[in-house]
């Protein structure tokens, strides 16, 4: 299957995958909250934890770098003082990275029996809610404001070049992850 070269379609497809991951994570969090102190990590929960961690490690970090190195710099050129106006997008990424790192630490602690299960459940609820809320808000801002700006601000050749660069960067980043 040939990869999509259009940069906005690439990013939108990745956003859709992240929304599905957030839905899975939120479903698990809501069950933990309903069950309160009796909540325990079941096999299906562990599968969601692993899937979320994998999504974070391989896909989300690649997505963030594609935006930071290819998409945001070009988008900033479209708007007077764009660097200042769009700086919070990069700040969002830093906060998201902190939450993702914490989630990966929670999974590692659970796998290594480093903390009691009720502590893991509580940490998953707290960090998972931060991930879901902040990631969905960030995606909403990009989808509704920034992608529309890009769609109208770039010509087809610029979009094609940007998409090609994103695919090349993605290939390099995934090569490093799998090395």
Give a description of the structure:
It is a single chain. The protein is mainly α and 179 residues long. 86% of the residues lie in helices and 0% in strands. Helix 1 (7-35) runs antiparallel to helix 2. The model has no long low-confidence stretch (mean pLDDT 90).
Provide the fold topology.
Blueprint: H1 7-35, H2 43-78, H3 82-85, H4 87-111, H5 117-153, H6 156-178
Helix pairs in contact: 1-2, 1-5, 2-4, 2-6, 4-5
Question: What's the quick description here?
Answer:
With 179 residues, the chain is mostly helical. It has six helices and no strands. The chain is elongated, with a radius of gyration of 18 Å.
Helical content (DSSP H or I, runs of 4+) = over 70%
**Distinct helical segment count:** 6
The N- and C-terminal alpha carbons lie at a distance of: 23 Å
Largest sheet: none
The H/E string reads HHHHHH
Overall mean pLDDT score? Answer: 90
* Weakly predicted, low-confidence segments: none
Strand count: 0
Category from helices, strands and their pairing:
mainly alpha
Report the sheet-strand fraction.
Answer: under 5%
- Oligomerization status of the protein chains: single chain
Global geometry: elongated
Attribute tags:
0% strand; 179 residues; mainly alpha; 6 helices
């Amino acid at each position: 299957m040939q990869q999509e070269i259009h940069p906005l379609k690439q990013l939108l497809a990745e956003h859709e995958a992240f929304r599905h991951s957030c839905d899975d994570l939120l479903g698990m969090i809501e069950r933990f909250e309903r069950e309160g102190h009796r909540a325990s990590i079941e096999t299906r929960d562990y599968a969601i934890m692993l899937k979320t961690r994998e999504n974070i490690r391989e896909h989300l970090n690649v997505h963030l770098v594609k935006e930071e190195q290819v998409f945001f710099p070009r988008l900033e050129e479209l708007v007077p003082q764009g660097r200042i106006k769009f700086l919070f997008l990069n700040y969002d990424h830093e906060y998201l990275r902190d939450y993702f790192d914490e989630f990966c630490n929670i999974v590692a602690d659970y796998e290594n029996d480093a903390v009691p299960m009720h502590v893991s459940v509580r940490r998953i609820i707290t960090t998972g809610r931060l991930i879901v809320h902040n990631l969905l808000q960030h995606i909403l801002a990009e989808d509704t404001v920034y992608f529309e700006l890009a769609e109208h601000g770039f010509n087809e050749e610029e979009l094609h070049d940007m998409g090609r660069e994103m695919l090349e960067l993605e290939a390099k980043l995934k090569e490093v992850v799998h090395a």
